[in-house]
TrEMBL record:
Source organism of the structure: Oleiphilus messinensis
DNA-binding region per Swiss-Prot/TrEMBL record: 56-75
Keywords: DNA-binding
Organism ancestry: Bacteria, Pseudomonadati, Pseudomonadota, Gammaproteobacteria, Oceanospirillales
InterPro entries hit by this protein: Homeodomain-like_sf, HTH-type_TetR-like_transc_reg, HTH_TetR, Tet_transcr_reg_TetR-rel_C_sf, TetR_C_31
Domain HTH tetR-type: 33-93
Signal peptide from the UniProt entry: none
Protein name: HTH tetR-type domain-containing protein
GO terms for MF: DNA-binding transcription factor activity; transcription cis-regulatory region binding
One Pfam family, short name: TetR_C_31
Length: 242
């Protein structure tokens, strides 16, 4: 299998970077762009602490340390501010997701598919390596990106109620699903999209457990969950004369 750097794509085949379209007023100067960025980053912090409905112009201005007029200058209303904050979140998340998928791709590409599909031992070795990578990813997310996880869940939850956020949420999730499904297809999965959905749901569940337990992760349980998922996926590969 050939090693490649993963470029995240939406269901339409666009790269995530190309699909991100900010709605607010564009900044013409570096100083203005810096202030606009401060406002969006402050919005993300509020979303992580209070949820999307905690985003108000006055609260954002206070959190960002900018005049109230700045928030209404760059963003005509709260909806536009929330939408662009979601876009910034997706942009920031891109490098973390791409890094994880690139490492996963390297693991998969180190194996010859014909050998892998006929060897239970090789499948077990690959499963153990992916399990280690997945566990490391969960630990890093809980330790270093707790607020990002909270913001992500707040945006996705609000998209269930807000029709204007639904397209953004679908676009964001399609990046996860499509890129992971491509990797699983290279691995020989018979149901790459379904398996990608199972893996992503597992990631969300394990992250949720880590956050509600104040960052404490039951390592044994987490690895058992990962192993169950990986065994089910790799078990789809037909093993002959192991």
């Amino acid at each position: 299998m050939q090693t490649s750097t993963q470029v995240l794509t939406t269901s339409g085949g666009e790269s995530l970077q190309d699909s991100i379209q900010y709605q607010g007023r564009k900044a013409a100067r570096a100083k203005s762009e810096h202030r606009r960025r401060l406002i969006l980053e402050a919005t993300l912090r509020i979303v992580a602490k209070e949820g999307v409905r905690g985003v108000k112009h006055r609260a954002v201005a206070k959190e960002a340390g900018v005049p109230l007029a700045s928030t209404t200058y760059y963003f005509k209303d709260i909806d536009e501010l929330i939408s662009d904050a979601f876009m910034l979140f997706a942009e920031n998340s891109q490098r973390y997701i791409e890094s994880f998928y690139t490492e996963l791709s390297k693991l998969i590409s180190a194996y010859d598919f014909d050998e892998l599909v006929h060897s239970a031992d090789l499948q077990e070795r690959l499963s153990a390596q992916i399990l280690d990578l997945g566990s490391q990813y969960i630990h890093a997310q809980i330790r270093f990106r707790r607020n990002d996880i909270l913001a992500e869940q707040a945006f996705l939850l609000e998209s269930l109620r807000d029709e204007r956020l639904k397209p953004l949420a679908r676009q964001y999730r399609s990046v996860w699903l499509n890129s992971l499904a491509t990797l699983l297809e290279e691995l020989g999965s018979k149901s790459p999209e379904e398996n990608a959905s199972i893996i992503i749901s597992t990631v969300y569940s394990l992250q949720y457990d880590g956050i509600i337990n104040d960052g404490k992760i039951d390592e044994q349980r987490m690895r058992a969950v990962w192993k169950r998922v990986l065994d089910a996926i790799l078990g789809q590969l037909k093993v002959e004369n192991p």
